[in-house]
Amino acid sequence: MNNLTLFCLLSIVFCCTPKNQKESAEKSPESIQRIAFGSCSRQSMKDAQLWKEVIAENPDVWIWLGDNVYADTEDMEKMKADYDLQKSHPDYQRLLQKTAVVGTWDDHDFGANDIGKEYPMKDESRDLLFDFLDVPKTNEAWARKGAYQTYTYGFEDKRIKLILLDVRYFRDSLKWTMDPKTAQVNEKGDILGEDQWTWLSAELDDAGSDMFILGSGIQVISKDHRFEKWANFPRAKDRLLNLITDKVEVPVLFLSGDRHISEVSKLEIAGYDFPLYDVTSSSLTTPWGEPAPDVNSHRVGEIIYPTNFAIMDIDWNEMRPSLKLKFVGKDNEILQDFSVSY
Ligand SMILES: [Fe+2]
């Protein structure tokens, strides 16, 4: 083989390797140790975004926990433009090149503040969310109503199942009182809808998982504040906790957003082997104005007011995972760190 022939053959090999195949191999989430997550990102606040900081932490996967854009519209062209603006941020583009990105939604990206199943454009909105997230067309979530999805990640012989819940598409109505605006309890109301409950129950049956991570736009454990939370739907919250304690024999961790504050909440259930933690990280761009006391009888550690995202390192040296969590702010300042051993 002369040099010219060799050059031609090499050229064919390089030209025929699809660029996206190489990228998807690099982005493969198969093996992960470091998870980053956050929520509540105003697409118009380009300079406030924390993508440079996220990239500097070098996570294996980024999880959106809702309010990924503030669309608040029934105009799908406007919503698409909002997603396009968010996605076009040069630093977010850099993140997409090197990190797997998944996510679910909350109210402002679903379509309107605090809204549930009554939002009229929810099917169109769901498709825009999945387009924004580049959910592969082969993912069975596309064929369902709503935005719930699952992903399995690994590290050596350990498996984590990430379950991203949809707390909007099927959610029953919520009533509010004013001054101050306060969400009321809907005693009989549901959050997930029967199809999603059936799916969740089957996902939690997976005996091959060494840990479950459940993402929810709204907080699962914190119950004392006046904003949206699972506690506004006590039947749904009890059903979720009963499902976990009845079926799951490995640690379960909740991740949530929405609140424009960050905190860790802890719930211990008598007779259940593992404490339940809910790690809330919010907001990526817009802090909650004046720092004010915010009651949470389940909080461990301090409440965090500045813009932030969260980083979680998972250590599998023991039989059970150990988690090292940190809330990271502007210029990668560590705002708080926290460890969990199961
Ligand atoms: Fe929200």
Provide the descriptors you would attach to this structure in a database record.
single chain; 342 residues; Purple Acid Phosphatase, chain A, domain 2; 9 helices; 6-stranded mixed beta sheet; alpha/beta; 7-stranded mixed beta sheet; binds fe (ii) ion; 15 strands; globular
Radius of gyration, Cα only, in angstroms? 21 Å
Instruction: Find the count of extended strands (DSSP E, 2+ residues).
Output: 15
| Ligands bound, unique | fe (ii) ion
Strand content: 15-25%
Q: Given the C-alpha coordinates, what overall shape results?
A: globular
Q: How many DSSP H or I helices? A: 9
CATH class: Alpha Beta
CATH H-level superfamily: Alkaline phosphatase D (PhoD)
Give the proportion of residues in helices. 25-40%
Structural class: alpha/beta
**What is the CATH topology assignment?**
Purple Acid Phosphatase, chain A, domain 2
Terminal residue distance: 61 Å
Low-confidence stretches: 1-29
Lateral strand order in the biggest sheet: 4-5-8-9-11-10-12
Order of helices and strands: HHEHEHHEHHEEEEHEHEEEEEEE
Mean pLDDT across all amino acids: 91
User: Based on the structure given, which CATH architecture is correct?
Assistant: 4-Layer Sandwich
Count structural domains: 1
Largest sheet: 7 strands, mixed
